[in-house]
Amino acid sequence: MACSSSCPSPDAAALNCKFGCPGVRVESGKGGLPKVCLCVDGSVAEVYLHGACITSWKPVGAATDLLFVRPDNDFKPPKPISGGIPHCFPQFGPGKIQQVVLWPTKLNTHITVQNTDSKPFEFSTALHSYFRAAISGVQVKGLQGCRFLTKDKVPLKGCERRDSITFTGFYDCLYFNAPNSLQLDNGLGTTIGIHNHGWTDAVLWSPMDQIASWREFVCVENAVLDPVSLCPCGTWSAEQILCLTDYPSQHVSSLRTSKSCSSLSC
Ligand SMILES: O=P(O)(O)OC[C@H]1O[C@@H](O)[C@H](O)[C@@H](O)[C@@H]1O
């Protein structure tokens, strides 16, 4: 994936003139929608301005894109993009609340919510992250001991006993007071660390045959499930940091000294 592939649409070209800089380029993406390509030290990420959805993350040395965008997308606003990392606040949609920072081995997503009204308001929110995966080999670790509630027709609740969660059928489950670090083995040979500051809960989703491409992804989401109440002028923020936990050793030494990153606020 290169940051200079397609011919920019007029919108993208204008945006690129205004905001493009080394490591940040605006291009015309699918459906003619502008997307921002971030590059740093051989790592690339793409963010569609529609919904501020991060549709691609390929750290240097990764064999494939680590995010998954569903093939059933038509990239036609106002419909949100299904896949990648869309934020839900309080539903999918654009908003000047997200900063995306690409480091050589990490992808940070920082969400800030400000109450600019004179009354308090409540919200819940999530990063509905779709990871590329081979579902039969996926393992999620870190949720042992958390209280859970499934979203089945007859919901089940309890305390997660498993050290490692695997997916053998439909799975849609909320985890409360989740820890700040989860590990996702994507079943394709890569383990991704999913770290956060400020996200209190997590959601795991594998839709089975509700979605044709279900074998190719898993959703591991940072979320805030119980509504947050923000007083006037109040601010809430949370950060997600994705990184490769088994980063190929040949890349580590050259990047250890790198302090560069590319960032986008949208
Ligand atoms: O909107 P999308 O991308 O199709 O995802 C919907 C799913 O998103 C998951 O986060 C929920 O836990 C599921 O209940 C829901 O069906």
Automatic annotation (TrEMBL):
* Membrane-spanning ranges: none
A Gene Ontology CC term for this entry?
cytoplasm
The cross-references to Pfam families, in alphabetical order and at most eight, read: Aldose_epim
Q: Which domain of life is it from?
A: Eukaryota
> What Gene3D superfamilies has UniProt attached to this entry?
2.70.98.10
Q: What are its GO biological-process terms? A: carbohydrate metabolic process
GO MF entry, a single one: glucose-6-phosphate 1-epimerase activity
Under which name does UniProt file this protein?
A: Glucose-6-phosphate 1-epimerase
Task: Tell me which species this is from.
Answer: Ceratodon purpureus (Fire moss)
